[in-house]
Amino acid sequence: MAEQNNPEYGSMIKGFQKSIQRTAAEVKTSVLIVESENETGQSLKNLLKNLGYNVLGVISTGETSLKSVVESAPDITLIDLKLKGIMGGISTATYIFHAFNRPVIFIVKGLDTETTRETIERAKVADAFGCIVLPCSEMQIYGTVELALSAFIASSSTQAGETIGLTKRDLQRLIHIDEGFVLLDMKGRILFMNPFAEYLSEYSYKESLLHQIHEIFSMSDGVSGHKMEDDLWNGVREGFVTALSKQMTLFSKNGNRRIVMMKVVPLRNRRDQLISLVIHMRQVFSKGLTY
User: Is the entire prediction scored with pTM above 0.70?
Assistant: First the structure.
């Protein structure tokens, strides 16, 4: 284009790039990248750094990204739409946004095939705040990220200015609170558990990842002594039971017996589709007293 050969146009673009670098640096926006292809991930990392963003890291799989999201609480996460691994890009984005209230943007490599368009349609379940179609310029990335952040802030705030959903501080609390927090997929597999859940079960997060809940948390009814029945879990998953709260006896990996008050809460997306189960566990030290 003629404008691009004009020295004044080139000077204006450079000035704009410096301006957006300052803007990103001033607000210290943090970005996490979840990308299977190392070359693509590193390229995006460099582009975002050039724009002044704080890039927290590049994670190669969805199943390892959830822990990073809780520990680092990124302002926004960029996720490969066709992420390789057990957890694909759509599932990863769904859990990051709906379980941890962190906005996501999809990374898309081209939009010229029918398959990709169908994938985008399926990706709507994640409620992503946009997509970056590669290859693209720094300004396109900047515009997508900033508009996504603006839309997320608007959607997660009430008219009174209160925040809806988990905040960054809430995510930090998950690491330190004396309450077990476990995120399951709809197959009953563990996607994330915090340090106190590790303490209760005596299994590490790494040992527990993608294992069935009953393989890590062996529990029986605290009153009757009956094992947690599969049909009760199924009732929660199928929507017959909206939530479950019971006192349970938990048997740890090393055979230690602990009394816990367990609460199971179904997690739904904005289309009211059931996408996950969240388990909260408080240890009971004496009658009526939890910690």
Answer: yes
